[in-house]
Amino acid sequence: MQPEINIGLVGHVDHGKTTLTERLSGKWTDTHSEEIKRGITIKLGYADTVFYKCPSCNKFTVKEKCHDCNEAATDPIRKVSFVDAPGHESLMATMLAGTTVMDGAILMVAANELCPQPQTREHLMALQIAGVKNVVIAQNKIDLLDDDRLMKNYVQIKEFLKGTDYEDSPIIPISAQHGVNIHYLIEAIQETIKTPTRDPNKEPFFLVARSFDINKPGSTPEKIKGGILGGALLQGRLKLGDRVEIRPGRIVEEQNQLVAKPLFAKIQGIISGSVNVEEISPGGSIGIMTSLDPAVVKSDNLVGNVVGLEG
User: Fold this and answer.
1) What domains sit in the chain, N to C, each tagged with a CATH number?
2) Is 74 helix (H, G, I), strand (E, B) or coil?
3) Residues whose CB falls within 8 Å of the CB of residue 204, separated by 6 or more in sequence, listed in order
4) How many CB atoms are located within 10 Å of the residue 301 CB?
5) 85: helix, coil or strand?
6) Which one of 9, 31, 113, 206 is most buried, by most CB atoms within 10 A?
7) φ/ψ of residue 135, rounded to 5
8) Rounded to two decimals, what is the model's pTM?
């Protein structure tokens, strides 16, 4: 099952975006060495999960069995991709790159801090500018406060949202750390962030939100793999072996002028989640292994490019 939709997790630094991603998907997305050292998200993180619903109690979950109904089997409803965006002020450019592939978002607000914090405000503005219309507010860390302080924080959130495109967005009190009210959050996501209609029969249009080199230092030439493009396919289909064109490509200087040079490559692998697939349709976060020189794509050099079939 391929993910149908990309949902961003945005908000101020240390408000629980990565913790919620792990709670929903089982994956801790801060895997970059600098992220582990500093304890903050630096790169865009990606994780997939499947939403399930218990036919007996109608609760939503990310588990195949319902713990409230004697481990009764649950029904798969939808597979989604999460895009975990960094919250630190110095990493706004990375967060903005992430909004290009988001179909909806969860705005994380820590209940134990005044609302709005600087990046809470900036991230909400970024969503609005990017045209991300469907947003769920997660009032996180409710386990740290009593009811009176939680209500004061809720009022602050409502006041902050007033006059924005999101003043009617649902606000769900949760504890990502302890898994409190996660089923209500999933229900709000299901009701608020619908899967958009996409056309798989159009010419493919892939947005690049990340690009990187997966080769370890000292790899021998025969073991070197081509550069990876991460992002989302908005329309059309792409398959193994396709020849693709990447635009605008590399920016070079010719006769004292900056010129865009398109890049051409062959698709050598497609990764959806952690699974290698032969073909992809629109929806979810995808990794495309190309024949590009890894030096061209490293360190997110191709973020903002678009990919289509050659010609």
Assistant:
1) 5-192 (3.40.50.300), 205-309 (2.40.30.10)
2) coil
3) 233, 235, 236, 237, 238, 307, 308, 309
4) 16
5) coil
6) 9
7) -135, 140
8) 0.87
